[in-house]
Write a structure and sequence with these properties.
With 375 residues, the protein is α+β, with helices and mostly antiparallel strands. Helices cover 30% and strands 27% of the residues. Strand 1, helix 1 and strand 2 form a beta-alpha-beta unit. The protein binds adenosine-5'-diphosphate and magnesium ion.
Length: 375
């Protein structure tokens, strides 16, 4: 075990890195963040911020001089950098797992090979791959760039082969997947922690509602049957094991209208839909990440209160600073802001968690808050 007082390293300085840093510092660790942005949310709170690109070799070796263990907070960190680090320190998760999660073609292929249900898809790596006969069964569908997409970016809804061809050109003719549009009843996510010994712990399942491709609300506990919940948990654990995963992993699922469970995507890090764990669980997903990184005993998460998390996007600043007073005057509500300067539309600036005796009450609170903030 790595004792408190030691350094932990993280690639990426966004809000996930910031919440990791705070959790690590609470337990007495020092944190070194590598992020090219001087004003990054995590860089501002960490003991050390190395301002450099993720593939900068001297920055990577500076990190390895400080710490024996390094994690990551976003999947687009070059998997090669993780491999390079792995030569001298422990990287959790491993570079292979991150490589799978950062590329939709690899991800969907890997999941299918593990026997996990995914949406019917076809990998498109060349204009010539877009042929009527093979693709018509996937329409209407969604064309998704294989890499660097997030919050609905790098995706186009397509009805016909012609539209698929146009969308492929619009996305820059990069490798893509064409995925069949499925009839969704709801979406859920499972956050699982898996440690060096291969032991796992699961956080309560979140039910997720998106708006314009971006997570809007997470409702916990998810309003699904016990059977569906256990199935989702076993699939998440199965995926973590197959990836030989060490760290916190999120598995996003579609629940289809016929109650079939299909994996949408995986994230090799804590997840936006797990932010509620900070205020509503016996330990947060970030504390679990710290525990796994430092080889402390894995925490067993329990839900202290039903919760609803609402994402605060930059759109709320269109008429100046939002009315936070209306939020913080309620004592059943927690406000989190990430210290970002530029509130651009669609940018995640913070989140609010409402706690209550049941999720219907918490939903009601959040709807009232939304009405005030989005007015
Ligand atoms: P991102 O990486 O941007 O989160 P996702 O692949 O998770 O991209 O897609 C974002 C959202 O779009 C999903 O959460 C879901 O609401 C919707 N979506 C994506 N793929 C499908 C699909 N095959 N069928 C129906 N809805 C989908
Ligand atoms: Mg997603």
């Amino acid at each position: 075990m790595i004792n408190p007082g030691s350094w932990l390293g993280i690639l990426g300085g966004g809000q996930l890195g910031r919440m990791f840093t705070t959790a690590a510092q609470t337990m007495g660790y020092k944190v070194a963040v590598l992020d090219p942005d001087e004003g990054s949310p995590a860089g501002r709170v960490a003991e050390k911020h190395i301002v450099a690109q993720y593939d900068d070799h001297s920055a990577l070796s500076e990190l390895t001089r400080l710490t024996k263990v390094i994690t990551t907070e976003f999947e687009n960190v070059p998997a090669e950098s993780l491999s390079l680090l792995a030569a001298s320190v422990a990287t959790r998760p491993n570079a292979e797992a991150v490589a799978v999660a950062q590329d939709r073609i690899l991800e969907k292929t890997f999941l299918s090979e593990c026997g996990v249900a995914v949406a019917p898809f076809e990998a498109l790596t060349d204009q010539n791959d877009i042929r009527d006969s093979e693709l018509s069964t996937l329409l209407p569908g969604i064309l998704k760039a294989s890499r660097f997409g997030y919050d609905g970016k790098g995706q186009r809804s397509v009805q016909t082969v012609e539209e698929a061809r146009e969308a492929y050109a619009e996305l820059g003719k990069v490798p893509c997947v064409l995925e069949k549009r499925l009839p969704l009843k709801t979406e859920i996510s499972v956050v699982v922690g898996r440690n060096v010994q291969g032991l796992t712990e699961i956080f309560p399942i979140a039910e997720n509602q998106h708006r314009n491709g971006i997570l809007d609300l997470s409702i916990v506990p998810a309003r699904i049957s016990r059977d569906l919940a256990s199935e989702a948990e076993s699939v998440a654990i199965h995926i973590a094991r197959e990836l030989n995963y060490c760290g916190v992993l999120c598995v996003e699922f579609f629940v289809l209208e016929n109650d079939e469970l299909v994996v949408n995507e995986i994230a090799p890090r804590p997840h936006n839909s797990g932010h509620y764990t900070i205020d509503a669980c016996s330990l947060s997903q970030f504390e679990q990440q710290v525990r796994i990184l430092a080889e402390l005993p894995l925490g067993h998460p329990t839900l202290s209160s039903p919760a609803v998390m609402y994402n605060i996007l930059g759109d709320l600043w269109k008429a100046g600073e939002p009315n936070w007073e209306e939020v913080v005057r309620r004592n059943d509500v927690k406000l989190h802001l990430y210290g970002k300067n530029a509130p651009r539309p669609g940018r995640k600036m913070g989140h609010i968690t409402a706690l209550d005796r049941d999720c219907d009450q918490a939903i009601k609170t959040i709807l009232e808050i939304k009405q005030v903030l989005e007015a």
